[in-house]
Amino acid sequence: MLTENLKTENLKSHVQNLIPEIRNPLRIYDCGVADYRQILERQQRLCEDRYHDKIPDTILIAEHPPVITLGSRRNANKLLTASDDLAQKHIDVVDIRRGGGATAHNPGQLVFYPILNLQKFSLSVSEYIRELETIGIELLEQLGVHSQRRDDLPGLWVNGKKIASIGVRISRFVTLHGMAINIQNDLSIFDHIVPCGLEGVKMTSVLNETGMQNSISRVKGLLIQSLFRHFSSKNGSNLTDTTNHEPRKLPVWLRRPLPAGSIYNHTDKTLNSLGLETICMHANCPNKGECWGRGTATVLILGNICTRNCGFCSVAKGKPLPTDPTEPQRIAQMVKQMNLKYLVITSVNRDDLPDGGAVHFSNCVNTVRQLCPDTKFEILTPDFRHCQTEAIEILNSALPFVFAHNVETVSSLYPVARRGGDYQLSLNLLKTAKQKYPGIQTKSSIMLGLGETDDEIEQVLKDLRNTGCDRITIGQYLKPSKDSLDVVEYVRPEKFSYWQQKAIQLGFSWVISEPFARSSYFAEKSYI
Question: In terms of CATH, what superfamily is 260-513?
Answer without folding.
Answer: Aldolase class I (3.20.20.70)
